Amino acid sequence: MKFRALIFVLIPSLLAAQSVVELQKSFEKKVTEFTLANGLHFIVIERHDAPVVSFHTYVNVGSVDDPSGETGLAHMFEHMAFKGTPTIGTKNYPAEKAAMDAVEQVYDRLDAERNKGPRADAAKVAAISNELAAAMEKADNFVEPDEYDRVVESNGGQDMNASTAEDSTNYFYSFPSNRIELWFLLESSRFMNPVFREFYKERDVVREERRMRVESSSQGKLMEMLSATAFAAHPYHNEPGGWASDIEHFRRPAAERFYRQHYVPANITLGIAGDVNPMEARRLAEKYFGRLVSRPVPLQYRTVEPVQEGEKIASVSSPSQPFVILAYKRPDRHSPDSAALAVLDAVLSDGRTGIIYKDMVRDKQMALGAGSAAEFPGGKYPSLFLFYVAPSSGHTSEENQKELDRIIQHVKTTKVDDATLQRVKTKLRASLIRRLNSNSGLASELCSYYVAYGDWRTLFTELDDYNKVTADDVQRVANTYLVKEHRTVAYTYVPEAGPAQEGAK
């Protein structure tokens, strides 16, 4: 046991001593890639340390793909993906399907009456609403609740979950290696023929999630306000959870259309890492995922965000802990400046050694927490380089913002020293190695880099990009992108004081 613990301690340091080329070659020996005839791509990583396999399904669809008036639909389908298939999650699928279709027929009548606006008959709306509730209850009676989850867990599956972001939707869990075929069956089935059962009950769950994460959280509301203000045209202005009124009016047919449009095989990448035989994985992939019908990949074009020509200000009334965010427009992840921006971010807020922490938290104690982020909310499209700070007691948002402005001006006018630059590059490298230490981390990282750049090897060439960044590059990108005219300031303020008195300026 002690020897095993020692090995895990030594692995990161041994890898850190390797050149980027050596590190990449060591992984290439363990990675097998193949693409099925329908376009679905697999990345298989052999690691036979333990009889466990981690699976990661990366779908190239996120909240940027939500249709207008239906924000949050990508997140809604994520919930539907756990509801099962015609054979998992039902007591009697033919009867259940008929009951689900009957729900939609009643809902169509309700929407038709509501759409009359001021001419709608309130009594008729109430009567149809009662009819709809009864139809939903009948359909739900055919459901075998959480059966998909139980199948996974009863076969040793662990850490099953999913997430929806602006640029992607991800599904992941681990199985004992002797249950690998079960994963191929389950995962292919739920994306080949998902059943949108309990749709309206789950819609209420999604609405409650928004209530907890956004409406009941001052920081959640502030982040939503930041995105909505910073992006005038691009769909990054919508949070993955969606707007409340859109969620409350989701319809099952709309979610099914979204699934058919975006969950096409060529838009999905699957990572498998652990105790797996690549030849067997390919055989099972052909057997199960080969059943998915090829369909056209959806267009990736999005409305281009116009050039921002002046500072924007957003505020949120909140009696809780004050918070300030400064967000500057930056290019997408494919920009030649991306590596320099990542290094700038690390220089500014690399834990306790970053400029912001040492100045604002440790030395001046004017903030409880402060830092930066090189890429928000995503990287597929031009996004934001942001700074955040939570003022400490006795210090205002305004003085914290002024201190952030002073630090920003400092990195614009003063070159970072060689020792700091080298330390930051070493930590960026160590961060990558830590992410590759687990099977789940491997499967996730290789999938995301493959989709983002067309080749998972970019994960390693990115380290070369970091190493090439100079102090001049860091100073240049600071002056190029940290421009007041292209930034958005978002802050919370105490209601009694009012925005003008308490807010940042």
Walk me through what this model shows.
With 505 residues, the chain is of the alpha+beta class. It folds into two domains: 56-90 and 143-291, Metalloenzyme, LuxS/M16 peptidase-like (Cytochrome Bc1 Complex, Chain A, domain 1), CATH 3.30.830.10; 312-502, Cytochrome Bc1 Complex, Chain A, domain 1 (2-Layer Sandwich), CATH 3.30.830. It is 49% helix and 16% strand. It is built from 20 helices and eleven strands. The strands form two sheets. A six-stranded mixed sheet has the order 1-2-6-3-5-4, sandwiched between helices. A five-stranded mixed sheet has the order 7-11-8-10-9. A hairpin with a 6-residue loop joins strand 9 and strand 10 (383-391). Helix 1 (2-17) crosses helix 16, helix 3 packs across helix 8 and helix 16 (418-435) runs antiparallel to helix 18. The longest helix is centred in the first third of the chain and has 22 residues, at 93-114. The radius of gyration is 25 Å and the shape is globular. The model is unreliable at 1-17 (pLDDT under 50).
